[in-house]
Write a structure and sequence with these properties.
about 475 residues, Beta-lactamase, Lipocalin, six-stranded antiparallel β-sheet
């Protein structure tokens, strides 16, 4: 990397701890926060800029109010505004997350698969228009599926998470050739389970096979030698890379209450080679961002081609928006115990990276807000300034079934407000796990799973008639009669 693109930050660490018990849980949750403050290399620390103060203030309210577990980095114009670590790598041990803790990347892994493909294209080793059959045989439509179609996820290959062998034991690892054989033999009926929430794109798994065929190296080794090592990304890799011998990443968890987490179902991530198999840190991902901007990895022409959109899709796994006030590109993912996201605003040189070991889309909306604050916009954190306790008798009237309208993401859908050991939660078909509700008042709640605001409505006589659920838009649910 060029000297001006080097990320060199010294840090000081302040620790504080909070212990939370959860009924008869076998494990005690220790919510341990490590606040890592940016300290310049000079002897005297300069005052924060107004933008930096606003970014830090927004995030710390969110982290404290939501028991955030993970790491975050926000940068603008090459200056790191926020770089912090909070929480525990494992609720069973209470070991603190550090700024260099490795987190599973889920779908964010695809950004590196795409970069490797464009590196090979840049070197003349393959072309976007090449058919899949040129590199991997045996696919029914291998002559018509191109490298570009795989990059834009247009192959219509079956999902790995629907394969019976994976469903039978998600924790059992499978080799890349074995998984590609599954994809050749598909299609498979869709099978919705907790494990199926592991995001997997068969297109990028097949692209990993193309990388191995063209390079003659295992996927993880090729990325290590040609992407990670040249960029100084020493904390990024894949479990299958036996040379690197990295310490295990943070253990995955999912919410079991407003402020409580448990271990998520185990998944063998190398089964998703090329699509969801990598781990990394916020610092390494920021090095990747700098490399994309500086041309340290790919030429400007390759970067432009990778982010170019066709029919709303880019050829590099990223979601790209060229409309609105700011052009941006993002990848985010949710999977069992995984939340990872990177947002880039290239015209303003803003980058937001957020990694967690807890399944919750709330992290995505927080990343959006952090980017907005860094860009100079006002945002108010939905996290409560202090924990609100609602007595059980005031929660009881909310229990029951509700029906969402046809405008909901899954159409007309019935959900239930159920009691949990720590409060209430939304449960039903749309949810991988219960959406535990964090009280903001007696009648308004923040749902921990998606980050929406749930406000219960009442008739003039006081009876609960439904709720309004504000997410990216407002959804209205009507109370259903008992029975």
């Amino acid at each position: 990397m060029c000297d001006e693109e080097e990320v060199v930050i010294s840090v000081t660490t302040t620790l504080h701890a909070r212990v939370v018990s959860h009924g008869d849980m076998r494990q005690r949750l220790q919510v341990l926060a490590a606040l890592v403050a940016i300290t310049p290399a000079s002897a005297q620390e300069p005052a924060m800029t107004e933008t930096q103060e606003r970014v830090v203030s927004y995030f710390r309210r969110y982290a404290d109010g939501m028991a955030f577990s993970g790491t975050v980095l926000v940068a603008k114009s090459g200056q790191v505004l926020l770089r912090e670590a909070h929480g525990a790598t494992d609720v069973a041990t209470g070991k603190l997350i550090a700024i260099d803790t490795r987190f599973r990347l889920g779908q964010l892994s695809e950004a590196f698969t795409a970069a490797a493909i464009f590196l090979m294209i840049q070197q003349g080793k393959l072309a976007l228009g090449d058919p899949l059959s040129k590199y991997i045989s045996g696919f029914a439509r291998g002559d018509s599926i191109t490298i570009r179609a795989l990059l834009t996820r247009d192959s219509r290959l079956p999902n790995v998470s629907d394969v019976p062998a994976f469903i039978a034991d998600p924790a059992r690892p499978h080799s890349l050739p074995e998984v590609i054989a599954w994809l050749r033999a598909g299609p498979y009926p869709m099978h919705r389970t907790l494990a199926s929430y592991t995001f997997s794109s068969p297109d990028y798994t097949v692209l990993a096979g193309v990388i191995e065929r063209v390079s003659g190296q295992p996927y993880a080794a090729y990325l290590r030698d040609h992407v990670f090592a040249p960029l100084g990304m020493t904390n990024t890799g894949e479990d299958a890379d036996s040379i690197a011998h990295p310490p295990p990443p943070a253990v995955q968890h999912y919410p079991m209450g407003p402020y409580v987490i448990e271990h998520a179902p185990p998944v063998a991530w190398t089964t998703f080679t090329g699509s969801a198999s990598l781990f990394s840190t916020v610092d390494d991902l920021y090095r990747f961002d700098r490399a994309l901007r500086s041309g340290a990895l790919l030429s400007r022409a390759s970067v432009d081609e990778m982010f170019a959109t066709r029919r709303g899709r880019s050829a590099g796994a990223w979601v790209v928006s060229d409309s609105g006030a700011q052009r941006y590109m993002t990848i985010n993912t949710r999977a069992p115990g995984v939340e990872a996201g990177i947002e880039r605003y290239p015209d303003d040189d803003v980058c937001v990276i957020l990694l967690t070991n807890v399944f919750s889309s709330l992290s995505h909306s927080t990343a959006d807000d952090l980017a907005a604050v860094a860009l100079g916009h006002d945002r108010i954190s939905p996290a409560p300034q202090a924990r609100v306790v609602v007595p059980a008798d005031k929660l009881a009237p909310y229990l029951g079934r509700y029906q969402l309208g046809t405008d909901f993401v899954t159409g007309r859908t019935i959900v239930e407000v159920s009691r949990t050991p720590t409060g209430i939660a939304l449960v039903g078909e749309p949810f991988a796990w219960p959406a535990h509700l964090i009280p903001l008042s007696d009648s308004t709640f923040l749902d921990r799973l998606y980050g929406g605001i749930v406000s219960f409505t009442r008739a003039p006589g006081g009876q609960v008639t439904g709720f309004e659920w504000k997410r990216s838009r407002m959804y209205v649910a009507a109370r259903m009669p008992p029975g």
